[in-house]
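One example given next:
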Amino acid sequence: MVLIEFCKKCGGLLLPKKSGKKVILVCRACGWKGVTKLKKEFKLSVFEQKPTKEILVVDKKSRVDVLPKTQVQCPKCENREAFWWMQQTRAADEPATRFFRCTKCGYTWREYE
């Protein structure tokens, strides 16, 4: 049984925390501490998940064959498949620039929105 309780003070989510041998509820938003409404005692378990894969970082010097492919026509050789990636090249309030690299000739071009 999962019980979700909310702070009466600010409405934030109350999370169980160990305090000595007792388990208390602490508000994520305002830090208010209280006790649970449950009559039974409950066990607090913490699970830590380790990442299964490393994050892959692709820079300009690395191979592009790890990038996703899309169906778009190359302006140089008219091949219909290219690798693509996005970068923020302008101000943060403007959309990112989409880059393409042809899978056949390696020509790279960009597309703005």
